[in-house]
Amino acid sequence: MRNDPREITVRYPAVCAETGKPLPKGSVAVYYPRSRKLYHPDSRTAADFRSQRFADAAGLADANW
Prior knowledge:
Number of domains: 1
Oligomer: single chain
Number of helices: 1
């Protein structure tokens, strides 16, 4: 969906909303369109996003926690 979080390639230099780490142009980040925030791949929010995406794809029982 349009407002669902997703991984994107950063088009402009930015800073992670959680860690403050730089996100240079061309790097991969997790984007949350509702809050318009980017998260560095090392951030806890990005790790949670990847865990949720894996659980959804694998059909795990706790996929919709």
